């Protein structure tokens, strides 16, 4: 591809850009008689050129498209009189947008072939049964409906709070309670998919965060649209003293965050020049001292450029805030707009206005991008400031109990793994966990390392080691019956994982969880089970709660014998 790009830029009338995935997707979408084959470079390039030529003959006759194209060129642009570059742009568009949308449209939804025979009116009657629909059920369904009827559990977690498992469990347990209404669940591969009563589902696409997409059944969604949700919490409860999060727009033609010094207090009027209340006036009323603000400059800058804090409650005329940090590497609008986790953000839903509400998950997502792009330094002084557990809990969305467990695991195991897609707050949380353990917010004592792809598993994991002419296994030295019993149960678990058609041997539990320990204690083994093994099983078998319960009983039972 690189070679064809250079040749095309040098001789645009003679050579075409060839990208395998673009050529293949375009050929399939247009039902052309040519599709590229890996390993046949010469044939692929010739076929791609022929495909572009066939498309070019059609494009050159499309006066509306050509007029639109030429209206966006200026005198410095390549004229492209033959419209061959325009044709490749069209091919790229087909491959990356139209073909992808067609694929999604044709995608099979699990459960779509099942008809439980529950019309909207029957759903409305079932809603009155409090033995089926409890508070959690209504919160889960309300948030699915508000999100548009289709979402991953991770997307709901970022938007409305709670953990992804809150929604996963809420869906499964509600569906199981429904089976008491003479509703039979179709079995597939010997497993009951209870959630298909409420939803159809599919695995996520590459541009979606999470594991599985749930979509409300049409009849259920129709019935839910008539429900009065006024007594149901759309967002997870926050304590009275919790911090709110905001997105503040600055029009750089009028004022700029860069004109404000760090620590300088500013006021923002709650009324426009005509004396009318600013849009979403309630946001100005809800903002209170200590709230955090993402500072954004609109067109033509279109970047997040500062972090601010509300300094005091509004006085009826102005909102008061101070700039606490300027960003040396601003975050572009396009990076945020393209993130699926932020698609329901208040500003992106309707950008008209000045002050917009952010959820905790949205704020953390943005801040994680900020921290990855900017070296984080203590604010206000060259001397590192103190940092405690309370400081961690005020900045990271986590309970005190979870923090204690996380800290204990790190001190005990000397490593922890934070899982999640880019931008969910892993870097942000990891730094603050380090600060809280050190007791100071000192960037110089925290180091990030990125390993080269040539590093292998054996470079880091202890297990079998050379011994004379053979190898030996950091196992008999413990001489602990509970340890041996646990290992035998893990072997049984790995056998079940390996034979699972949706998993296989590649998902088996590795030996590294049981290595590197100087002393074998029940507390250490229980922490491995509770914080490593069982959470992994909940991801493996998220729609098979009975299997998860079975292995919870087996593994926990080792310590009760």
Quick rundown:
By secondary structure, the protein is an alpha+beta fold. Helices cover 42% and strands 13% of the residues.
Beta-strand percentage?
5-15%
Characterize the biggest β-sheet.
Answer: 6 strands, mixed
Mind telling me the C-alpha Rg?
Answer: 28 Å
* C-alpha end-to-end distance: 62 Å
Shape by Cα distribution: globular
Total E-strand runs:
15
- Helix/strand-derived category reads alpha+beta
- Tally the helices: 20
Please bin the fraction of helical residues.
40-55%
Strand order of the largest sheet: 7-10-9-8-6-11
Report mean pLDDT, rounded to a whole number. Answer: 82
Q: What topology emerges from the helices and strands here?
A:
Blueprint: H1 2-10, H2 20-29, H3 41-59, H4 63-71, H5 84-106, H6 120-126, H7 135-146, E1 150-152, H8 153-160, H9 164-178, E2 187-188, E3 191-192, E4 199-203, E5 212-216, H10 218-224, E6 245-250, E7 265-269, H11 281-286, E8 292-297, E9 303-312, E10 318-332, H12 333-337, H13 346-349, E11 355-358, H14 360-373, E12 385-386, H15 389-395, H16 400-413, H17 426-438, E13 440-441, E14 465-467, E15 470-472, H18 481-499, H19 522-540, H20 545-557
Parallel strand pairs: 6-8
Antiparallel strand pairs: 1-5, 2-3, 4-5, 6-11, 7-10, 8-9, 9-10, 12-13, 14-15
